[in-house]
Predict the structure.
Amino acid sequence: MGAVLQIVRQGKAVTPSSGFHGGILPSTTQIIKIGLTSQFTLTPASGYAVSEGGTCGGILDGNLYTTSIIAVDCTVEATFLLDVDGDGIPDIADNCPIVVYNQLNILWLICIRMAESCK
C-alpha cells in the first residue's frame, strides 16, 4: 500500500461576501488561526451605508469590520443600504429621510432634521 498524504488546515475559513453598491476587502476566503480575529474593510458606494452580517459576529468601526474570536468556519456578509442623508447610518435604521408624498402621489424622500427623527 502507498502512503496517504493528509493535509490538515491550520485554521478556520472566514468567507466574505458583498452585495450591490459596495465592496469588501479582502474579498477571498481567509484561513484564520483559532483564537484570533480577522479584519475586513467594507466600502459603500456613494449614497449608501454599510450593514454587516454573517455568522462570525464582530464589530463595525467606521468601515473596518473586526470579527469575533474565530472558533469555527464562518461568514462576513457586507450589505449596503440606501443612505440619502449621508450620515453613514442606513436610512431604514435611523428613519431618515422621512417618506412623504406630494399631491401627485409621487414618492419623495426628504430629511427633516428634528430632535426625534434624524440624529
Notes: The mean pLDDT is 82. The radius of gyration is 20 Å. The first strand starts at residue 12 and ends at 18. Residues 101 and 107 are 5 Å apart (CA to CA).
